Amino acid sequence: MEVQIAEASFTAMKKASKASQINININITIPVYWHAIQSNQSLIGGHVPIHQINNSIKVLNEDFELAGFSFKLMNLSYVTNQTWFERDIRAEMKEVLRQGNANTLNIYSTSLPGLLGYTTLPSNYQLNPKNDGVVIRYSTVPGGTYYPFNLGKTLTHEVGHWLGLYHTFQGANCTGKGDEVWDTPAHEAPNFGCPRRDLPDTCPKQPGKDPIFNFMNYGDDVCLNEFTAGQVERMHQQFMVYRRGKP
């Protein structure tokens, strides 16, 4: 029901703002503030070396290049706070650290036990601007230790959410609107690993096999390499409706 309400609102706002007429061939540059939360300055304590931060931004730019988004690191801050690192105190952390406005991407790297990452959707911004941003497990950056999720694709996936995309398996069934994107094949559940042969097809009566290579699925990092044209269109429309020019 929450998704249905959000989509009804998006449809109305898209029409009012003429976002459906947007030129998706125009590149949008997004300023980035990276907050590296650590318990100490050791690798096991959450310290992410600056070259891994830079490589993360490099991967992000490569993955979104064809989608028309680029990312510029404006500032990197190392925050030594054992409580924030060991416990998910997101409200307190973001209240203190968040920078910029609606079109500013704040990235928080921390320990995040049990998760790879999470984020807020564009439609959430107006209700709680300070909560906006992406949180990732620090060891998922390129060259990190969390194999097979250490090529930087967790950040790409979460930024996809930050730009308005759902999982490709949204709704977890073969009918309905799924992820609200016209060209992502329906599938009943997330795909894990990276099958190279006999691609799964959990919705055989629907067009296309499961999109195992899509950034918004759950495959291993080495498997993820694409957004669809429909996803690109949706990201630009969501950005125009919820993020561009908003304080």
TrEMBL record:
Instruction: Give a GO molecular function annotation for the protein.
Output: metallopeptidase activity
SUPFAM superfamilies in UniProt? Metalloproteases ('zincins'), catalytic domain
- Write the record's keywords in alphabetical order, separated by commas: Disulfide bond, Hydrolase, Metal-binding, Metalloprotease, Protease, Signal, Zinc
Which domain of life does the UniProt lineage start with?
A: Eukaryota
**Keyword hit for Signal:** yes
- Where in this chain does the record put each Peptidase M43 pregnancy-associated plasma-A domain? 150-237
InterPro entries from the entry?
MetalloPept_cat_dom_sf, Peptidase_M43
UniProt-listed GO biological process terms:
proteolysis
The similarity comment for this entry is: Belongs to the peptidase M43B family.
Q: State what protein this is by name.
A: Peptidase M43 pregnancy-associated plasma-A domain-containing protein
Q: Which organism is it from?
A: Rhizoctonia solani
